[in-house]
Amino acid sequence: MGEIYSIVNQKGGVGKTTSAVSMAAILGKRGNKTLLVDLDPQANATSGLGLLDHRFTYTVYDALIHSVEASKAIYPTVIEHLSILAASKDLAGAEIELVSEFNRERFLERSLAPIKDQFDYILIDCPPSLGLLTINALTASDWVIIPVQAEYYALEGLARLTQTIDMVKKALNPQLQIRGIMITMHDKRVGLSRQVEDEARGYFKEKVFQTVIPRNVKLSEAPSFGEPITIYDKKSKGAKAYKSIVKEIFL
Amino acid sequence: MGEIYSIVNQKGGVGKTTSAVSMAAILGKRGNKTLLVDLDPQANATSGLGLLDHRFTYTVYDALIHSVEASKAIYPTVIEHLSILAASKDLAGAEIELVSEFNRERFLERSLAPIKDQFDYILIDCPPSLGLLTINALTASDWVIIPVQAEYYALEGLARLTQTIDMVKKALNPQLQIRGIMITMHDKRVGLSRQVEDEARGYFKEKVFQTVIPRNVKLSEAPSFGEPITIYDKKSKGAKAYKSIVKEIFL
Ligand SMILES: Nc1ncnc2c1ncn2[C@@H]1O[C@H](COP(=O)(O)OP(=O)(O)OP(=O)(O)O)[C@@H](O)[C@H]1O
Ligand SMILES: Nc1ncnc2c1ncn2[C@@H]1O[C@H](COP(=O)(O)OP(=O)(O)OP(=O)(O)O)[C@@H](O)[C@H]1O
Ligand SMILES: [Mg+2]
Ligand SMILES: [Mg+2]
Q1: In this predicted model, what pLDDT tens digit does every residue of B109-125 receive, in sequence order?
Q2: Which end of chain A is less congested by CB atoms within 10 angstroms, N or C?
Q3: Helices in chain B by DSSP H: which ranges?
Q4: pLDDT in tens, A152-196
Q5: Which residues line ligand 2 (CB under 6 A)?
Q6: Is there a contact between B224 and A149 if contact means CB atoms under 8 Å apart?
């Protein structure tokens, strides 16, 4: 019950939000009770599910900083079994506010604990950094999924990311494990894409998922309609790839 | 002398580093004494100029946190008049270390002050966040350049970014101004690209540069060779677009 997955990579624009929203929508649609936690002050996962201009009474910021029960900041989405712990802009202040608190790494873990067993899966969309919000996500999680864009810069940060995961595992959360590496925005026609995939498989071996997410313009169009890819265009290459990777990751 | 430009957008993967490295290389090549400051713990600008495995005695972290003279952390690059204030991974700790310091927003300004007049232009590549490193960059700068990827999520964060710039202007740096908005990774064949461009021009009017940077695979290949686009493929669409935008921005 309630397995928690963090979607993490400090490199920006690698497909963390797109992966979190797409996978959460597929899990919800197949009947798994799923919670998507938007832990990014950009609140892209919240708007990717069509809740951009929603007037939230409470958000994940209140659950983290003002000890409001997380259940009060959880909202239904357009997908039956999918709920979201929504983000808003004030989350940007949370990192600085957490710095001087005791147990500053465990605020999210504490706020998810009372609700964890109401869900089959909890996915956490993280901001592009290894700051306290991402550390909170890693401390609260069972698994980590690492999206890697099929581009050069995306490979460079992986050593630092895996080091940070090891540090969290040793100091804060012994059961944390890397579930796998997901290659995103892969373009068969581009040599660099194939090269990055080969290097990732060479280095991380079977930890790299078999399914590769292709670059697919439908995936970048979907958020402008506030819809996950499974609603916007369920027959697209992007939707098919995410369905296949969900089968690989979530048994 | 020594005009300082910050390249800022908290949205990840919008082309901040690619723009900073490309523009700095073009300025250097045309004879302007140029300094590129890598203020991102990912150190992508440093590796984009071929200095990834370089053993730096000092980096921008030492200049910020240990008051080492910035000139000691400045290194030459493959381009004659271009130098880099290099970054390393330890910069990741700087944000937390700065939080409890007095005048925590002015550390970069203070470290650039003694060297500012040795250059015609100083460009600062920022991380994908609005935390203390980016605030330090804005406080030290005369101008801000905002790369916006021609995708939906990239438009959403602009209101928060311009609010933050206004706040820095009022509280910390009255002469700070937005130099302009640069549309990046634009693909003429994709409707979403045209839509994002139209919305950006509708909202920001003449602040959006005329030159649009197209999506061009050569730009994503260049960093894997540690070369700026002007060396990797100076006849590419990407190189031509950056040359044209440099003429628009830097008189
Ligand atoms: N497979 C894909 N094909 C085409 N476009 C994609 C794909 N995946 C994501 N995108 C688009 O690329 C951009 C970056 O993706 P996304 O915002 O999901 O990345 P992110 O890692 O969450 O970014 P950030 O670091 O800012 O949080 C978005 O505009 C998104 O719509
Ligand atoms: N015009 C372009 N055409 C094609 N690819 C591009 C273009 N501009 C940048 N890229 C590629 O897109 C990716 C993101 O660009 P870049 O790393 O410069 O963005 P960034 O805003 O600096 O990211 P971060 O938020 O992580 O600092 C990189 O792999 C880069 O090589
Ligand atoms: Mg995101
Ligand atoms: Mg960058």
Answers
A1: 999 999 999 999 999 99
A2: C
A3: 16-29, 44-48, 60-65, 94-99, 107-112, 132-140, 152-156, 158-171, 191-204, 217-221, 229-232, 237-249
A4: 998 888 999 999 999 999 999 999 999 999 999 999 999 999 999
A5: A 11-13, 128, 151, 153; B 12-18, 40, 44, 128, 184-185, 213, 215-216, 219-220, 223, 238
A6: no
Q: Are strands B34-38 and B74-76 parallel, antiparallel or unpaired?
A: unpaired
Pairing outcome for strands A143-149 and A121-125: unpaired
Q: Cα dist. B179→B38, B144, B147, B204 in Å?
A: 20, 5, 11, 12
- Which sign, positive or negative, has the C-alpha torsion B62, B223, A178, B154? positive
Please give the DSSP secondary-structure letter assigned to residue A68: -
Q: Tell me phi and psi for residue A95, to 5 degrees.
A: -60, -45
What is the structure's pLDDT at A89?
86
The residue whose CB lies within 8 Å of the most ligand 2 atoms, and thus the one to mutate among B220, B221, B243, is: B220
> Would you say A158 and A193 are in contact if contact means Cβ atoms under 8 Å apart?
no
Question: Is the pLDDT score of A1 beyond 80?
Answer: no
Contact between residue B30 and residue B58 where contact means Cβ atoms under 8 Å apart? no
- Assess whether pLDDT exceeds 90 at residue B49: yes
Contact A125, A41 (CB under 8 A): no
Query: Is residue B1 scored above 80 in pLDDT?
Result: no
Q: Does B198 touch chain A (CB under 8 A)?
A: no
